[in-house]
User: What shape does this take?
Amino acid sequence: MVELYFDGAVRPSNDDAAVGIFCKNSEGQVIERTFRITAENNHEAEFQAFLKAVELAEELLSQGESVFSFRTDSEAVSLAVEREFAKNKRIQIYFDPAFERFSRLPLAFVKWIPRSENKADRVAKDALNEY
Assistant: This one.
């Protein structure tokens, strides 16, 4: 099973935003990825982080992985996946394509975790400081 932790971070003072992903594949290898993004708020950043995590899962699927556990400290993301819907129009532009791709993965689920357990929190904050 692949564990995919994802997080978005926004620095409102200067509009910097980044995504961090911490992934452990089924062999225990760790993959960390960061992306600079454009986001007006933390919710937008979290949904963009979900999309980037799904993209990584697709890469790993092509390498033979088949079970994906996505982990997030965003209740908004976990509820949107559970409901298969995001009602906020600004969020839909990120959620809809991410969920469509997520739903094509053979076995995937999203689990809400506390921020203190989100290994991607550090990765996202480090990315924010690098950019």
